[in-house]
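Bumping with the actual sequence this time:
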Amino acid sequence: MRAGTAFQPSSASLPLELTWTAPHDCPQAAAVVARVEEILKGPPLSPTTVRAEGAIHRSSAARFDLELTIRTGEDEDRRRIDATSCSALAEASAVVIALAVDRARTSAQPSSPDAAASSSSAPEADAGPSIPKAPASAKPSPFPSSPPSPATASERALRFSVGLSPALDVGTLPHAAGGLILDTALRLRRLRVGLLGSAWLPQDVEFEPVTHAGATFTMLTGGAWAAYMFPIGPLSLGPTADVEATFVHLEGFGIRAPASSWTSWTTVVLGARFEARLTRWLALTARAAMTLPIDPPTFTLGPSSSSISLHEPSAISGRFSIGPEFVFP
């Protein structure tokens, strides 16, 4: 449920018209205006009325979005803020509105000596807006005493992401291989920690051109990864590291008694991760990394006495991926 209210302060000395929409469990227009009056701490003498329109809506189970428009004369200021608390958004609205009212009051101050003398008798009216503690006799504020700023609240939020990226691996299998990487992560500020898995297209390697005898390689990987991101405007860039188990299935073909087997080893992956936030819940990610296999096997076909070597993974291979990532909430 949402409540929409057009509200004017009880004191005619406050030049403010507020239109406010918010869920019923959030602070309403009267509370926002009361907070503005508390911040200003005095009768603002201004012929210019500040018109403000604020709307809070719930964007997810634990987050709220604020759209705030302030008009002072011919000037218009639009802001959009998100936070985990609607009380924090209402407090931010009160501060922004109070600044707009104070600017209108300051611009309307007369510059004549008589006006200056009369204004000196009320020094608190000239004071800029602040956020002091309310006096003991004042009514308790509906806002938290020290609300986190929207940016801080957003930065502290623990979020979850899922990504699916087309990828290219060069060096692990006999030929360059295409595949898909699925990763999940917990996001805490700049830190990313999660799990990933990948599947790669199978490829055939022939060792006998006449009979077309050879083997089919199929690779799967799974493991854990972490990254630390450094924001650069709307983008982020940072180092990343994985520890993976690599599984390769080898199956012979074109021979008298074809056989198949699975082989596995541990791989360390070091590289860089790039993120570009497209919307609140969607990002574009890219990774470039080198894979370092630990004691990988040499793939052979045939009995040990007369085996034919098919492939040995490179000591350092390259891996590249790019794709969408969905962020919740």
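The tokens above came from a reply further down the thread. Residues 115-128, 130-139, 145-156 have pLDDT under 50 and may be disordered.
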